[in-house]
Amino acid sequence: MNILELNKVNLELDGNKILNDLSLNFEEGLVHAVIGPNGAGKSSLAMTIMGLSGYEHFGGDIRYKNDSIKGMPVDERARKGITLAWQEPARFEGIGVAAYLGAGNPKASFEEIDEALNLVGLAPSLYRSRKVDKTLSGGERKRVELASIALMQPRIVLMDEPDSGVDIEAVDYIFKVIEQLKSRGTTIILITHSPEVLKHSDHCYLLCHGQLVEEGETEKMLPYFSNKCLSCTHQNFPVPGEFMSMKGVE
């Protein structure tokens, strides 16, 4: 059953068309990946689903559990169980880690908070009283954010470049969180440029210039990362040295 459906979504920003008649279906309880070159509209897709400021006005419709959420404020979407893990987690000067985690789930016990910290490899005795500020590294902040999401137990979580700016150890914990969320029935949407992240998905969409180019199971889509990008009708001019070449679309 589809938990989230995009029906002919069109988004323009500053006169530029970002999403173009985009229709996608996200099946409940699966890990979906969204891949594509820079400028394909991947992050804009996540922000539109979340309803963030500047992305709330679009053509078409977005339906959650068969009900339209178009025009719904971001906080109401959050209460329905839709959340977004930022590529660059925010800092909250003066807020302790335990308080930050508890804000996402006020009913969480101290034991559950410690369990969430352990899940992402942060020792509760060392991090519970730390502040979510510049004293934490980018990787530590991302782990704290993931612990918060694990505590929320959302219905849908959008992860924008979840492995960006973190070390190899942190990436392993990210995958653990993805596995746990999936085991609880959460639908996960991964916005990624990474073949390793893609391998943890069940299904993948390939976007280009705001349009759907191809979709399929993970194995079908992995060749995108080995200079075998699927053909489409768009004219692309990749940055020299970028990991992929737009074969067949020169």
Name the descriptors.
single chain; 250 residues; alpha/beta; 4-stranded antiparallel sheet; globular; disordered C terminus
Low-pLDDT runs: 236-250
Mind summarizing the main beta sheet?
6 strands, mixed
Lateral strand order in the biggest sheet = 6-7-8-3-9-10
Order of helices and strands: EEEHEEHEHHHHEHEHEEH
Count of helical stretches = 9
Q: Kindly report the average pLDDT value.
A: 86
Overall 3D form: globular
Structural description of this entry:
The protein has 250 residues and is an alpha/beta fold. It is built from 9 helices and 10 strands. It has helices at residues 42-50, 74-79, 97-104, 110-119, 124-127, 138-152, 168-183, 195-198, 218-221, and strands at 2-13, 16-27, 31-35, 59-64, 67-68, 82-85, 156-160, 187-191, 203-208, 211-217. The chain has a 6-stranded mixed β-sheet with strand order 6-7-8-3-9-10, with helices on both faces. A 4-stranded antiparallel β-sheet has the order 2-1-4-5, covered by helices on one side. A hairpin with a 2-residue loop joins strand 9 and strand 10 (211-217). The longest helix has 16 residues, at 168-183. The chain is globular. Residues 236-250 have low confidence and may be disordered.
Give the secondary structure arrangement, pairings included.
Elements: E1 2-13, E2 16-27, E3 31-35, H1 42-50, E4 59-64, E5 67-68, H2 74-79, E6 82-85, H3 97-104, H4 110-119, H5 124-127, H6 138-152, E7 156-160, H7 168-183, E8 187-191, H8 195-198, E9 203-208, E10 211-217, H9 218-221
Parallel strand pairs: 3-8, 3-9, 6-7, 7-8
Antiparallel strand pairs: 1-2, 1-4, 4-5, 9-10
Helix pairs in contact: 3-6, 4-6, 6-7
